């Protein structure tokens, strides 16, 4: 889940007004006539790049550490209401430092919200720094150096790679990922969402990723799918996002059954929920409605999700115990 992708139209308009940020005029783009009009436009994305156009406009309203804290806190409150107990969330520092916002201000704001989530909800969180693949690799290198201390001391949980996929194969970031691997920094990358399955191969072979974000094209390569399954590389699926961005026509087209049959580890996620109309519980429900999974099949997904998370082992143990408790509580209803 991308924190910037949880920026609701209401919060966007509030921050823009408070910070004196001019959003596009309604004459130029009618979507900015009101929060309701903008939300309606979000339902009509035609591609990943169409979404990213609005995604980056939204970021322009984030100026101060308080803004980043409010953004993350709004998401954590919604996630808590959906029953989330641990969240691993992406953020895009280059989208902010490129506007003159200090890296430290971004991270300070987000980490304050993370602490608040744990204090008020008992929700643990991990922040994952993503590089923007539409920007030069040299800029990602600067960002990596800026963040290296936080990556090594655990303030940040790892690195990722996102933004426009087509035309930006992941191998270009190999040097950064090699350095991260040498320093035992966790690694993931978006691959095989709109881009070809070969991008997943590059992410595995050249970046040494421990997770693959989206990865729906993995089902097109049986050999690679078996390799990913054997290596326990988790795929973080985002069902409603894939439909909204027209990667698939419906949730039923996602390779859920194929991944389960092949033993691929995968989790269910919400991607950019404010833009795609589906938070985490909505995505879980969409999968159940499309595939009518059994409790045992859901247990496989939950098991992979916890094992593939980047939290400490004691937290994983607590989550496994929590899952077992609720399965036992509802045993008579679900078996």
Descriptive notes:
The model has no long low-confidence stretch (mean pLDDT 96). It is built from 17 helices and seven strands. The chain is globular. Helix content is 53%, strand content 11%. The protein has 335 residues and is an alpha/beta fold. It has a seven-stranded parallel sheet with strand order 1-2-3-4-5-6-7. The longest helix has 19 residues, at 103-121.
Can you describe this structure in just a few lines?
The protein is an alpha/beta fold. The chain has helices at 9-19, 35-42, 48-59, 65-81, 94-97, 103-121, 137-153, 174-182, 197-205, 222-230, 239-244, 256-262, 273-276, 280-291, 295-307, 313-329, 331-334; strands at 86-91, 124-132, 158-162, 186-191, 211-214, 234-237, 266-268.
Kindly report the oligomeric state of this protein: single chain
Shape: globular
Query: Which band does the percent of strand residues land in?
Result: 5-15%
Order of helices and strands: HHHHEHHEHEHEHEHEHHEHHHHH
The residue-averaged pLDDT reads: 96
**Helix/strand class:** alpha/beta
Q: Tell me roughly what share of residues is in helical segments.
A: 40-55%
Radius of gyration based on Cα positions: 19 Å
What about the largest sheet?
Answer: 7 strands, parallel
Strand order of the largest sheet: 1-2-3-4-5-6-7
Q: Unreliable runs, pLDDT <50, ≥5 residues?
A: none
Summed up, the helix count is 17
Count of strand segments: 7
Cα-to-Cα separation, first versus last residue: 32 Å
């Amino acid at each position: 889940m991308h924190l910037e992708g949880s920026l609701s139209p209401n919060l966007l308009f509030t921050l823009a007004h408070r910070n004196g940020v001019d959003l596009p005029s309604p004459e130029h783009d009618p979507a900015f006539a009101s929060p309701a009009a903008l939300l309606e436009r979000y339902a009509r994305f035609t591609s990943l790049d169409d979404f990213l156009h609005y995604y980056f406009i939204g970021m322009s309203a984030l100026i101060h550490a308080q803004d980043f804290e409010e953004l993350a806190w709004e998401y954590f409150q919604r996630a808590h209401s959906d029953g989330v107990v641990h969240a691993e969330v992406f953020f895009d520092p280059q989208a902010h430092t490129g506007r003159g916002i200090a890296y430290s201000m971004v991270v300070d704001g987000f980490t304050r919200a993370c602490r608040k989530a744990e204090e008020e909800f008992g929700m643990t969180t991990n922040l994952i720094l993503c590089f923007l693949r539409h920007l030069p690799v040299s800029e990602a290198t600067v960002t990596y150096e800026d963040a290296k201390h936080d990556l090594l001391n655990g303030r940040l949980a790892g690195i990722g790679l996102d933004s426009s996929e087509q035309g930006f194969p992941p191998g270009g970031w190999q040097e950064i990922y090699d350095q991260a691997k040498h320093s035992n920094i966790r690694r993931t990358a978006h691959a095989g969402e709109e881009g070809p399955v070969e991008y997943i191969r590059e992410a595995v072979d050249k970046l040494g990723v421990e997770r693959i974000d989206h990865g729906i094209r993995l089902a097109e390569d049986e050999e690679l799918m078996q390799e990913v399954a054997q290596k326990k590389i988790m795929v973080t699926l985002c069902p409603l996002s894939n439909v909204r961005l027209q990667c698939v026509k419906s949730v039923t087209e996602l390779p859920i059954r194929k991944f389960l049959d092949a033993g691929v580890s995968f989790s269910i996620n919400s991607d950019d929920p404010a833009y795609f109309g589906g938070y985490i519980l909505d995505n879980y429900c969409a999968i159940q409605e499309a595939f009518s999974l059994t409790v045992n099949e859901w247990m496989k997904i939950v098991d992979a999700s916890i094992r593939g998370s980047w939290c400490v082992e004691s937290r994983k143990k607590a989550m496994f115990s929590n899952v077992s408790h609720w399965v036992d509580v509802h045993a008579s209803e679900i078996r």
